[in-house]
Write a structure and sequence with these properties.
Order of helices and strands: EEEHEEEEEEHHEHEHEHEHEHEHHEHE
CATH class of the largest domain: Alpha Beta
Number of strands: 17
CATH topology of the largest domain: Quinone Oxidoreductase, Chain A, domain 1
Number of domains: 2
Low-confidence stretches: none
CATH superfamily of the largest domain: Medium-chain alcohol dehydrogenases, catalytic domain
Mean pLDDT: 95
Largest sheet: 7 strands, mixed
Length: 336
């Protein structure tokens, strides 16, 4: 079968590999669509802290069942999505239902080989039927669920002023679900094309470009009080540190981004505002269900979000081009 392997930073190869063998308790899947996300691009560029090379990337995907155990609830031909966070089920986090931050988590495409291939075999408990959505939509569930999880974790409520820093796919997902909760949403980014996309397709209430006057603009939008909830989705340590200054007194700062570095802030300012600081990692089954419900109701602009497509064999040439200047890339889908 064809597999695309990231052999080392900057090196992608399409190779013929042996098909997987389905183990007991697993479901054999024919991969249908794979979403390319920031994690994959970070793996390609060598900026992912939890990975060893070589690696088959790809953790956002939909598939069709080809083989499953009797009594598993799956049959050949079922369209499914996969929760790519393979949790242990018994650690301190899993016992609390926080499988997204399992002590021994194994993420497909990061800790073990993922979906940029033709077939994968996955433990049945992480496979779910994609009922009422297309294969394209099912492949976009995961990144949207990360945004839904962050919004749920920050307990965003109607009427709150929300700032999302970083208008990439994850930041956009946070904007979508904050808007669905009735918040007033502002986005902050360096790129005019992404800000324009957020205005036209996500209906954000305001979009501000990073620059010499951005703080003044954000203050003006909030009567000088700044934001009840701030999300950072930049993956940039300077932006993450700067974001503390955009949180209103009594507000919440949620870091969706992860960087290999130290986050720092002014302790007097942090205490003066009684800031709540949260990390948000991955997503849970409940978050995927939240996204599914919104998709089935037509409340997610998934067609607009899917800006690029390519075939599996074209990934070694096509994926690096997603990093080049040009038309706005939000979500690229690979057809397998």
């Amino acid at each position: 079968m064809l597999s695309v392997i990231c052999e080392s930073p900057g090196v992608l190869r399409a190779r013929q590999t042996e098909p997987p063998v389905r183990a007991a308790g697993e479901v054999m899947l024919r991969v249908a669509r794979v979403g390319i996300c920031g994690t994959d691009l970070h793996i390609f560029t060598g900026n992912q802290p939890y990975l060893q090379y070589p690696r088959v990337m790809g953790h956002e995907f939909s598939a069709v069942v080809t083989e499953a155990e009797p009594g598993s609830g799956f049959a050949a031909g079922d369209c499914v999505y996969v929760m790519p966070y393979l949790s242990c089920g018994h650690c301190v986090a899993c016992r609390q239902g926080k499988t997204n931050c399992c002590v021994d988590i194994k993420v497909l495409g990061v800790h073990r080989d993922g979906a940029l291939t033709e077939y994968v075999s996955v433990p049945a408990q992480f496979v779910h039927k994609a009922e009422g959505v297309s294969l394209d939509q099912a492949a976009m569930l995961e990144f949207l669920a990360i945004g839904a999880h962050a919004v749920r974790r920050a307990n965003v409520s109607s009427g709150q002023r929300v700032l999302v820093v970083g208008a990439g796919p994850i930041g956009m997902a946070a904007m979508i679900f904050a808007k669905l909760r009735g918040a007033n949403v502002t986005c902050l980014d360096t790129r005019a094309d992404r800000l324009a996309f957020c205005r036209s397709e996500l209906n954000v209430d305001a979009a501000v470009a990073v620059g010499a006057t951005d703080t003044e603009q954000l203050a003006s939008l909030t009567n000088g009080e700044f934001f009840d909830v701030v999300f950072d989705a930049t993956g940039n340590i300077d932006a993450m540190n700067r974001g503390f200054g955009f949180v209103a007194h009594g507000g919440t700062y949620t870091l969706i981004s992860i960087v290999p570095g130290q986050v720092s802030f002014s302790d007097p300012e942090f205490h003066k505002r009684e800031t709540t600081l949260l990390a948000s990692r991955n997503a849970t089954t409940a978050d995927f269900e939240t996204v599914l419900e919104a998709m089935r109701a037509g409340r997610i602009p998934d067609r607009a979000l899917n800006t690029h497509r390519m075939h599996l064999a074209d990934v070694p040439d096509g994926l690096p081009r997603l990093l080049e200047p040009g038309p706005t890339v939000v979500k690229a889908l690979v057809e397998c």
